[in-house]
Amino acid sequence: MSSSRAQGLDGVTPVDDVPAAFAATVQEAFTRRSGATFSLVLSGGPTARACYEHLAALPAGSIDWDAVDIYIGDERGVAPDDEDANQRLARESLIEPVGGVHAFFPMPTDGPLAHCAQRCDEVLHAALAVDAFDLVHLGRAPRPRSRRAHRLALPGLEGARRS
Hints:
The chain has helices at 18-32, 46-56, 86-98, 113-130; strands at 38-42, 68-72, 103-105, 135-136. It is α/β, with parallel strands linked by helices. It has one domain (17-136): 3-Layer(aba) Sandwich (Rossmann fold). It is built from four helices and four strands. The protein has a four-stranded parallel β-sheet.
């Protein structure tokens, strides 16, 4: 291969600047959206923070944040303001810097884990009944990031396995 970057698995070429590539991907997907709003599912972690900060720093008008609905993925029962909470990370690194979004749907954490998972499942099913998510940012943690972390089994996904 003549390129300085090696081609990865499944024909995917690695990028040198993940946050910049993420921001460009979101901006392109926002431009191509089919509806009036844009649905963005976010995760957490240090790479996610860098991606969201880069996205928030795009020039004004690059994305109409009043048309963006943000959903937070977080399989842990972490309180909203806990330092490990994905929703806190999204609020601090993206939502607050851009001045807010159309709608924000964090993982509920204000009750028993099974009840919170059921409520999250209802929100996701309602969103997917209308349309597919426009873009999903997946995070991957090799182990729980907090001793307070608890894994949830979301209804309907208990038999799902990674292939």
